[in-house]
Amino acid sequence: MIGVFDSGYGGLTVLKEFVRQLPGYDYCYLGDNARTPYGTRSFETVYRYTLECVQHLFGQGCKLVILACNTASAKALRNIQQRDLPEMSPDGRVLGVIRPSVEIVGTYTQTGHVGILGTVGTVQSMSYPIEIAKLNPHIRVFQEACPMWVSLVESNEHQQAGADYFVRQHINRLLQQSAAIDTIILACTHYPLLLDKIRQYTPERICIITQGHVVSQSLCDYLHRHPEIEQTLGKTGKRIFQTTDSPEIFDRFASPFFGASIQSAKVTLR
Ligand code: DGL
Question: Is residue 188 annotated as a catalytic residue, yes or no?
């Protein structure tokens, strides 16, 4: 299976695109809803939680795990790839969402001023400015952390009028940093659920990049380039949903934004 991991519901915005673009594969989604949000937690805690979830997914038979979470990609991916994977699953692979987003941003921006909206953890890690500078040294990166946004989504308050205050506040703060920003990356997989409100408070000339289709396209390319991994993946169209919290709540909240009904199971991580 292809394992897809997030701290909660956000990774479903990525899985939805995987299923649309690569429907034939088997997927196992794990949301660590019991411990969400990750974005305000320390490096060590995000690393430990993410490692436990990745170990669990390999234990379920996944050969490839996508960290569909920017915070986990920023704080845990490199350690897991370099330190843990060789022992945990030498033939397995773990990929994140930051690199695919960084690779395409240069094709969107004309002004070279790019905005990043992400969790406190993602912003403080400086992963986006560092990675963008490697590929596009001429691009200037402006960041804004939006600590409330994941909580709004996880508590299913993202469509309520109260969410507008927090959305407007952070977009204004980002745009105050540079009037020339013409491209914004929603660098948190929960944020597409706020897209209508984000669009409402963002000038129309600014391009907003959501990660689902970007990461999905990158996965297509990866599977073409790595037949040795592609051949190990099940292709029966199986979808498994797991959560570390209540499956009843997960199914009720997650089904509408996954776009299909979900029946999840509760898992306990070792
Ligand atoms: N979806 C996660 C991300 O992309 C949210 C992190 C959190 O739990 O705060 O960063």
Answer: yes
Domain 99-211 class?
alpha beta
Kindly list the domain boundaries of the chain, sorted by start residue.
Answer: 2-96+213-266, 99-211
Tell how far the Cα of 32 is from the centroid of ligand 1, in angstroms. Answer: 11
User: Is 220 a known active-site residue?
Assistant: no
- Residue range 239-265, pLDDT digits in tens: 999 999 999 999 999 987 788 899 999
Compute, in angstroms, the gap from residue 38 CA to the centroid of ligand 1: 6
CATH number of 2-96+213-266: 3.40.50.1860
Cβ-count burial of 49 within 10 angstroms (0-12 exposed, 13-18 middle, 19+ buried)? buried
57 exposed, middle or buried (CB, 10 Å; 0-12, 13-18, 19+)? buried
Of the residues 53, 69, 146, 220, which is catalytic? 69
Tell me: the pLDDT tens digits for 122-179?
999 999 999 999 999 999 999 999 999 999 998 889 999 999 999 999 999 999 999 9
The two domains 2-96+213-266 and 99-211 share their CATH topology (first three levels equal) = yes
Strand, helix or coil for residue 240? strand
The closest-lying atom of ligand 1 relative to the alpha carbon of residue 72 is 10
* pLDDT score at 259: 82
pLDDT of residue 178: 98
